[in-house]
Amino acid sequence: MTFLSSPENSSNSLTVDVVEPHNTLLPTSAVACEINNHIQFNPEILETYCAKNLESIVYDLLITTAAIEFSDRYKPRSRVKWPRDIQLRIPVADPSHWSSPSVSDSLRKTLNVLTGDHWRLYFVQRSSKYTEAVQSQLDYPPNASAIMAYSDGLDSRSVASIFEDSEGKDTLIKVRVGSSDKQNGKPAAFTAIPFTVKYPKHHHKEDSFRSRGFKFAAISAIAAYLSKTKNIIVPESGQGALSPVLLPLHAQYPDFRNHPVFFRKMESFIYALLGYSLNYSQPRIWFTKGETVFSALNTGIPEDVLKDTRSCWQSRYNVSFGGIRHQCGACAACLLRRLSLNHAEIEESENTYYWSNLSSSSFEKAAPDSLSTRKGFKTMKANAVAGVRHFDELANLVKDSNTRFLLAHSLELAKSTNQKHEDVHIRLTEMLKKHSHEWHEFLNSLKDKSFINNWIQGVIR
User: What's the pTM value of the predicted model, to 2 decimals?
Assistant: First the structure.
């Protein structure tokens, strides 16, 4: 067996070989990603993807998805250079099909756009039989017309409620990418992602994890293919889908994980690989998250169902206090949640957030006394500052001085959504105006001398 060799002398390069079970020949110059060690399947969950015998090509797509995640997170990015050179070798049942330009080129282009790296993928003959999975009697909703990658978060619950209110109950198949699900005491179809990716102990992983978007999109595509469903709903609203590309964080590559450009490339790859035509639809892309939550309330979903969700990016260690895991309340994800719930007039309890009182005069005073001494406090504060400035800059994009900037982005959106440029520009501008209104509505709910208002005015202390 031939393994790839690592690029010479490049600290920003990575070569990964996916190694089959029971293979005693391990790569010497490449990182080994071992099936059943670094890529681990859960047989019970895998069964929820088996209404019939699992097709080899579906199994190979699962392995490929896991290997992409392993490679993306294995190599931390350089502080001075975002793109990495990543070579990945994967054993598959039909390497000639995977290596065909229509498949391999579309996959490479999809990953390059998504992660901002330079990917090279090689496919070789798989020698071992894939993981066996027992055929299950899966109960797809009889009237199902759409798939959703369902994280059980605020967006997922809101958009699922809106869709089912419009299309009818049991019209949506939820592919669990967060918590697992059961129906009548047994796992539901697509109850969770069927694999986990492991790394060597104490290995420092890359935090950006842009390949997460590929994982969710690929798992959703597999669910659509197996259930013979054509429509995949992406629940993110306008700010979450578009702002990471409109206003990427300093020194970071734009985040396309929920952007139409990525989904069009993903559709092309899935069609080339599986011969199956599907559509990733984004019904809330021209609406703010606040509007989406408000629309969900109008379907009759209880407020408590929406409040009982988690948006925070912070780890358990950073936001645990008094034996309770809180949401931090100050990262970009928490800020978007709070301004959206404020617009929908949903009040959360003081226990929800670590930084509960955003009207405090300083970031430090808004947190429990012990927090400022914790490891990572400076990073959390820097993330909070970046989040505030991001949403404030997003609110200011509607100023006349930014018209040419928005026209350029509207053109890219028009091409990827197959709509007229003028129409897209109007809809993008209207969404940003609504964000601006909700952002200032949120700021007005805080005291004038709050640390958030101070940060916006350039006073950081």
Answer: 0.92
